[in-house]
Amino acid sequence: MLEAVLVDDESKALESLSWELSNLSDEVKVIATFTDAHEALRYLETNSPDCLFLDIEMPIMDGFQFIKNLKNKSFPVVITTAYNQYALKALKNEAIDYLLKPIDSDDLNETILKIKKFNDKNYTAERLEQILINFNSKSLQKKITINTDGKLLFLESEEILYVESDGNYSTLYLESGQKLVLTKKLKEVNQLLPSESFFRIHNSFIVNLGKIKEFLKTDGYVVLSAGQKIPVSRQKKSDFLDLL
Question: DSSP assignment, residue 28?
Fold first, then answer.
């Protein structure tokens, strides 16, 4: 059974949609309704329904602003409105479907099918991802799992030369010459890498200890096997020397 949340500034519209959905009692259960958009956003910060039915024409915050402010976007959003000129914009704003008020029962049934297909697809993808991660964590030679560009990469430690920070992003430099940009801070990437093989020698750099060819103590640099020169910060120098 799908658990649904409804958001509409008109209480009568909420009652009407709730009644329509109740006729699909074997399909949908309404778990919460809101006439206040801000209250709905707070609820959705800690609750994740199977779908959200959202009105467009609301005071203070319209439906499109609501979607932009929605932190949790793991569930499908269905736009409901009395104005058909919003159809294209609704679909461009990450909505899975668009329902015109008064809502037709056949249209609602089609929307429910779309929600089911969307959730089934996402569930399968998430389950497969978790299976792959669990398998990798139990393998004898544990690989490093990197999530980037909508795919999982399983890398050997030897493949990574170093990692460089760029604010909220980090770039992995591989021995093959490939670069992988991650939407993670360097601190988060550091937690993914095995501490026995990698060391954060600078606020902006993590290096593979096995790839260090030289350490220029006077200049405060390490030279990697592929020729890259990476700075060693004064704060990290003592700990780095202890490792060597």
Answer: E
Give the span between the Cα atoms of 242 and 238, in whole angstroms: 6
Cα–Cα–Cα angle for 141, 142, 146, nearest 5°? 140
Same domain, 205 and 229: yes
**CA distances (Å), origin 119, targets 68, 79, 116:** 21, 17, 5
Q: Do residues 129 and 152 touch, judged by C-beta distance below 8 A?
A: yes
Model confidence, pTM: 0.51
Work out whether strand 160-166 and strand 77-81 pair parallel, antiparallel, or are unpaired: unpaired
Amino acid letter, 219: D
Burial class of residue 206, CB neighbours in 10 A (0-12, 13-18, 19+): buried
CATH number at residue 223: 2.40.50.1020
**Residues 34, 7 contacting (CB under 8 angstroms):** yes
How many Å apart are CA 131 and CA 149, to the nearest integer? 19
Give the structural domain span for 166.
144-243
Q: For each of the chain's 244 residues, which pLDDT tens digit applies?
A: 889 999 999 999 999 999 988 887 578 899 999 999 999 999 999 998 999 999 988 888 988 889 888 887 778 899 888 776 655 555 555 678 888 888 888 889 888 988 888 877 665 545 545 544 554 454 435 678 888 777 788 888 889 999 999 888 999 999 999 999 998 899 999 988 888 888 899 999 999 988 988 888 777 889 998 899 999 888 776 776 666 5
Which of 74, 104, 130 corresponds to the end of one domain?
A: 130
